[in-house]
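Here's a chain:
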Amino acid sequence: MKAGSLTPEDVARTEIAIKPRLKQGEKLLWLGRPSMSVWLHPADWFMVPFSLAFNAIAVAWSVIVLRSLVNLPTQLRILFAAAGLVFLIYGQYLLWGRLAYERSVRRRLIYAATDQQVLILMYDKQGLAAIVRETLLRDCPAISAHLRRDGIGAIRFGIFPLRATPFGRLTLRAYSTAVLGIPVFADIAGAQNLYQQLSGLREALLKREASAGHENSP
């Protein structure tokens, strides 16, 4: 079993967490988590300029409002000041808050792959694990990989749902599983090798089922 960027403690507690989910004879092949070295994704080529523009507009709005508050009624002053504050806070989230949030998610995520299924676990602050997603390899309609030049990449187990936004399709981040509703191993090292291994296992499982079906057919 390979463990990518995990401590022995992480490996031990994850094996304990997923053991009840494994069938008899099922083997754990790989454990890993999103790389902490990845900060930006393709969609950020749009999001970074957009967030800078949004912040500039929010600051300009706040300055204009503050200058014009003197002659306005108290209720309107409070309303406009609150609106400006909301814009400023959201602008800061777009600029750096979303990246900080993603890193906090990365630290608590662990991916697991067996010879029959893939699982995604999320740890809380107390170190307790919850399995947020699990899918049998034979039930995946497709497995695809999105690779970077440095070998880090994402593996998607399924097809994008119709509700997926263009940004969700373009960028596979640590929280993509929750957004897209399909399992995603995001920003993992050695993604190419794991993708090839799991794709081969999926094909073997499907062929085995097809052969069993032919044998049992009248």
